[in-house]
Design a protein that fits this description.
The complex is a heterodimer of chains A (about 325) and B (about 300). Chain A has about 325 residues and is mainly α. Chain A has 14 helices and two strands, in the order H-H-H-H-H-H-H-E-E-H-H-H-H-H-H-H. Chain A is globular, with a radius of gyration of 24 Å. The chains are: A mainly alpha (about 325), B mainly alpha (about 300). Chain A: Belongs to the binding-protein-dependent transport system permease family.
Chain lengths: ~325, ~300
């Protein structure tokens, strides 16, 4: 098991080094950093001085190493567009994205699990059929159209909820939160539904199909034969045994929520990291793009690693065999 | 002629005739593709010719004559007096063009790498499949956005708008190749030990001829399924990117760009500028998707 963990961690580090290389190559070769930092009026001496100051005259590997060292310490350079350190902007924007992701992730998980179990147990009820049909629409509608549809119904026609922004925020330390004001909470509703809907349907459909499979097995029938209560059979025996694939998907979807926040944040003009990234792509703000790439990679690779290692905790059979899932 | 009769009696054709969903979605796709091809003939206006536009026609309601000019627009007009029906036809052209070429690019790349990985094996396989695994952990739309941003940065500013469509194709294609590569590799691993491959090897055929002439035709049917589903994904990906403002340029608006523009008029009550492009996108993506779903089930012998 230890060997497996070490191998997995080693693989993750390699992936991150490659991503770092891509990010570094973006910095170094997309546009000229000197060009971007010095204005029109510059002398050859200025160029040379800046070149050696930035270390651009040193060997490639050395520059890459310096870049990685800076990135690990949270130094991602200065945004071309805003003229401020990227790290500073990211810290400022992170709370709004994380709050949005947390709310929609929780919604997706609760409703996904609940509805999945419900539709698996009451397989042929009309409520289940209604839920399944609605979920099909949820999967096939593009996220941005769902957002626009919600804005149209709840902001334009009914006027109940705000269509853009975070509402009022309260700053606690360096964290600005929308959880503490009523306008902040109201502003969270539409974006988190938009962001969570797809993940919810995904979790629901998976839980449903896994549950239906498990409910047919002998140990569930045996549990019923022992005269256990229906709820005990469904939750303690059936649901627990669907947890391996379900945890994998929920874990992997966590990263997707942060990534897909880009779309939701643009629809609702939510001042988060996703909106920052999309603006960076529009204006070719390389330092911001590179920083986002590295952060999201750490997130994705980290989640993948944790999910893989979680297998051991959830599924005792793997521990007994002493080999990894793959 | 015999071939046509054979095709009519084939399993797939029988399955098609007996699946209403398949027939309806195929008909929808067919009509939309025709509309795209004959867009210049069908469209009442050329939305890119400013001389045919009349600003007074701006914001005409669908199907009602404009108060000042009396012009009638089937699906209304936008703020510039452009006919929404025509912009949709031309927008769908861009959407389909990008979708089809992106999938074709992804398909060629994926099939090539998948064949090589499966047939050659060894280090080559490890490297290709590791890259595929890593890319698969990232959502393809995110990969497309990053590639779009990077390539945009490499291209000089004056060429950016002209090249945007091709950059989009490259970005979406590079985001989708993994599916093809995985399936083709899997199928190749099975096929390469079959007797016909051994026979071909025995008579001294070169590696790439065996891969292309012998193995490729036998791994194509799953590729067809993935291609259809990928097309729906690519159309939606393109629309999403253009909606976010990192896709088709304003000079060549796709359906996503039109929805982006239409969203601006949501609050002022001009719903038709948004609704009709959105409905068109949905119809296009959904019908292609359903066609793909049907094809997957029809080609899967386990489900029969």
């Amino acid at each position: 098991m230890l060997a497996y963990i070490i191998r997995r961690v080693f693989q993750s580090v390699i992936v991150l080094l490659v991503v770092g290389l891509v990010a570094f190559a973006m910095f170094r070769f997309v546009g000229d950093p000197i060009e971007n930092m010095l204005g029109q009026e510059r002398t050859q001496e200025d160029v040379e001085r800046l070149r050696s100051k930035l270390g651009l005259d040193q060997p490639f590997v050395f520059q890459y190493w310096k870049f990685l060292k800076a990135a690990v310490q949270g130094d991602f350079g200065v945004s071309y567009r805003q003229g401020r350190p990227v790290a500073e902007i990211l810290i400022e924007r992170a709370p709004s994205t994380l709050e949005l992701a947390a709310v929609s992730g929780t919604l997706a998980m609760l409703f996904g699990l609940g509805l999945g179990v419900y539709t698996a147990i009451k397989r042929n009820g009309w409520v289940s059929n209604l839920i399944m049909t609605t979920s099909l629409i949820g999967v096939s509608l593009p996220t941005f159209l769902i957002g626009i549809l919600l804005i149209y119904v709840f902001s334009v026609e009914l006027g109940w909820l705000p269509s853009y922004g975070r509402g009022e925020t309260v700053t606690v330390g360096s964290w600005s939160t929308g959880f503490l004001t009523s306008s902040g909470l109201k502003a969270l509703i539409l974006p988190s539904i938009t962001l969570g809907l797809y993940q919810m349907t995904l979790i629901m459909r998976l839980v449903r199909s896994e549950m239906m499979e498990v409910l047919r097995t002998d140990y569930v029938r045996f549990a019923r034969a022992r005269g256990l209560r229906e709820s005990a059979v469904n939750f303690k025996h059936a649901l627990v045994n669907t947890m391996v694939p379900v945890t994998t998907v929920i874990g992997l979807q966590l990263g997707s929520i942060i990534a897909f926040a880009i779309i939701t944040e643009t629809v609702f003009q939510w001042p988060g990291v996703g909106l920052l990234f999309i603006n960076a792509v529009q204006f070719v703000d390389i330092p911001v793009m590179a920083a986002y790439l590295m952060l999201i990679s750490v997130l994705f690779v980290g989640i993948n690693l944790v999910v893989d290692l979680l297998y051991f905790i959830i599924d005792p059979r793997l521990r007994a065999n002493g080999v990894g899932a793959h | 002629m015999n071939k046509i009769i054979d095709a009519w009696h084939s399993d797939l054709a029988w399955n098609f005739r007996n699946s209403p969903v398949a027939v309806v979605s195929f008909a929808l796709v067919f009509v939309l593709v025709l509309a795209v091809i004959f867009a210049p003939v069908i469209a009442p206006h050329d939305p890119f010719d400013p001389s045919t536009l009349n600003l007074i026609n701006g914001f005409s309601q669908p199907m009602t004559p404009n108060t000042y000019t009396g012009d009638v627009f089937l699906l209304g007009s936008d703020d510039q007096g452009r006919d929404v029906f025509s912009t949709i036809l031309y927008g769908m052209r861009i959407s389909l063009f990008v979708g089809v070429f992106a999938v074709a690019f992804a398909m060629i790349l994926g099939i090539t790498l998948g064949l090589i990985a499966g047939y050659v094996g060894g280090w080559t396989e490890t490297i290709i499949m590791r890259i595929a695994d890593v890319q698969l952990t990232f959502p393809s739309i995110l990969v497309a956005m990053l590639i779009f941003g990077i390539v945009k940065g490499v291209i000089p500013v004056e060429h950016r708008d002209q090249m945007a469509i091709w950059v989009l194709i490259l970005a979406i294609g590079l985001g989708e190749w993994v599916q093809f590569a995985r399936v083709v590799r899997g199928a190749t691993l099975v096929e390469k030990n079959r007797e016909y491959v051994q026979a071909a090897r025995l008579i001294g055929r070169v590696r790439w001829v065996i891969m292309i002439r012998h193995i490729l035709p036998n791994v194509l049917s799953p590729v067809l399924v993935i291609a259809t589903i990928s097309l729906a994904l690519a159309i939606i990906a393109e629309a999403t990117l253009s909606f976010l403002g990192v896709g088709a340029p304003p000079t060549q608006p796709s359906l996503g760009t039109l929805i982006r523009i239409g969203q601006g008029f949501l609050f002022s009550g001009e719903w038709w500028i948004l609704l009709f492009p959105a409905l068109t996108l949905l119809t296009l993506a959904l019908s292609v998707n359903m066609l793909g779903d049907w094809l997957r089930d029809a080609l899967n012998p386990k489900l029969r």
